[in-house]
Structures are given as structure tokens and as C-alpha cells.
């Protein structure tokens, strides 16, 4: 995090990024900056599902077979530091976002993370109201489905608008959810030590019908 802050402050000091080309009121710039961090995270998250090397690390998060609030912390440290951490620096380099807006983004992000992963029941009307713009728990539960057709969808963290705009939005009845990854559906593969070393192991991805892909993931 210290490296992120240092890098972003350096970029800001040198007025690097598109937001330095226009004058905006503070609150408008703050909102836009938070949205820019979120849309960058959307594309990076999407990349972790399609780029085999990145998926090796990201699958640690998806390996949880019983999703609850603890799943929020189930990330490989290398992914947090090297993938999403560098993504924040990239956002600042491209758009001129600052450390304050990153802090506000993370404040909202972890509130959303908790409710998206928590094993709680929410009113269905949320999906058809504020769920048109924001990520709702039912949206993110689809993302943790074992079926890759659903796993590779609903990548957004705060604004579900990105999935709706870029064609990656999917929905299914919550009661049909089966969480986790088939290839991690063993007690020995749910241990901390195994998950930490799993990105460096050649584990083939298994589809919902049990067919293995030809290439290692």
C-alpha cells in the first residue's frame, strides 16, 4: 500500500492523467475518480478470469465452497499486491486519480464486499431497483457459481453498470447456486498452505459437467 500511495502521489505531483486536462468541482472529480477506480478494477478482474497466469492466483478467491463474509479475505497476497495494487497505479497514471479518491473507493468497496459475500438473505426488490446501477449480493453470488458460464460474469465490485454495458451481466435464482471450483472441492485443497502454493501447481480447470480443459489454468 505504501508503494501505491508513493506512486500515485508522484503521478499527481507531475499532473499526469486525463483529469488534469479539465477543471472540475471537487465533489464531481471525487465521484468520477471513484468510478474510474471501479471500472479499472472491472477490467482487471475480467482479465484475471481469461489470462491463465492471473487465473492461477485469482482462483484462490473462487475456491471457497461455502461463501460467507470470510470469503472477502480469501485472496492470494500476490494477487492483491501485484495485480489489483498495480491496477490502482495504472488508474492514476491514465486518469489522474488521487490517493483521497482511492481511499474513498476502498471505503465503499469493502462495505460492498461484505454484503456481497455475506451469507444473509436480502429483499428481492433490491435487484430491480438500486441493483440496476449497483452490485447486489445476488449478482455477486452468480459470479461464485461453479459453472464457468456464470463464474465468468458479473465482474464489477460497486457499479454493476459495467457488466450491463459490456455484456457480462448474468443472473440466476440464488437457491440454485453451488459455490466454489470443482477442482478444489476436497478438504485437503481447502487448507491455507495448499491455497497459498496452488498458483504454482499445475491444476487443470474442470467444467461443471466434469470435463477438463485441455490446457492448464
Structure description:
By secondary structure, the chain is mainly α. 50% of the residues lie in helices and 0% in strands. It is built from 9 helices and no strands. The protein has helices at 2-13, 26-50, 52-62, 77-95, 99-117, 137-143, 148-151, 161-166, 192-197. It is globular, with a radius of gyration of 18 Å. The model is unreliable at 209-217 (pLDDT under 50).
Question: SSE order in H/E notation?
Answer: HHHHHHHHH
| Percent of sequence in beta strands | under 5%
* Residues in helix, %: 40-55%
How far the N terminus sits from the C terminus, by CA atoms, comes to: 28 Å
Determine the structural class based on helices, strands and strand pairing: mainly alpha
Shape verdict: globular
Q: Tally of extended strands?
A: 0
Give the low-pLDDT segments: 209-217
List the helices and strands and how they pair.
Elements: H1 2-13, H2 26-50, H3 52-62, H4 77-95, H5 99-117, H6 137-143, H7 148-151, H8 161-166, H9 192-197
